[in-house]
Write a structure and sequence with these properties.
Keywords: Hydrolase. By secondary structure, this protein is of the alpha/beta class. The protein has helices at 10-14, 23-33, 51-56, 91-100, 122-130, 157-167, 194-205, 222-227, 239-244, 256-269; strands spanning 5-8, 38-42, 62-65, 70-73, 79-82, 103-107, 112-114, 136-137, 150-154, 175-181, 184-189, 212-216, 230-233, 247-248. The chain is globular.
Amino acid sequence: MKYKLIALDVDGTLLNDNHELTAGTAETIKEIAGQGTEFVLCTGRAPRSSLPFMREMGLDGYIITHNGAATVNVQTEEIVHEFAMDPRGLERFIDYCRENGVHYDINTTFSLYVPGASSLDEEALDMYKLYLIVPEDLPEWSEFNEPIVKMTVTAEKEELDRIQAEWSLWPQEDFNILRSGDFFIDIMHKDASKGAALKKLAEKRGIPAEEVMAIGNYYNDLTMLTFAGLGVAMDNSPLEVKAAANAVTASNNEEGVKLALQKYCLEQSVQ
């Protein structure tokens, strides 16, 4: 068994474009897990929108959520580790969003807060429903005292391109600002990333990097793909992500995860 720990991104990787986990992919994961391999979901999602997939597949262990900002035990839902941010540093981003009418949310490990959540339109609510989340009203900023692990900005791709370009000119030494999808920009602690969290988990489990496999499809997956002994990019990945990976599999709509696992984990087990 060459790979003892396998990290899977969720959206655009494990799930197809209809946000579905196919039966074939789930069965392949269960088969490999039955051989003793550990699986960890490594996602930009929150725990509440990640845990159901682990439980659907009958998997224990851990999930790495919020793009590496929080790691949670699947069985106990205990926070194993989280990178909390200084909320004062977020004020300039919040002011920008308010002044420019840009939608944003504030995430603790288990909760998501939106200004005026109770009056969100159906389109915004539908977006959160896709990720199995019910947003809560953001309290007055001066009264907010929970550990914040992520701020997410949501807009159309062209608007986010412009925002990303503007923010790239700001001092960023305190934050990791990354594009986690065509329609999302995430702001996190400067040390938070999927790769950093996966490295910590592998060390905790006593598993060297060469025995770790990671599969992902977007820029926020780069750090875990380059940390793992085998980094596999989906065919629906940007060219830069494919170039950074060791291998490329089929797209998320063609069960690319299943095919990669069969190629690198199941076939070798019978040789």
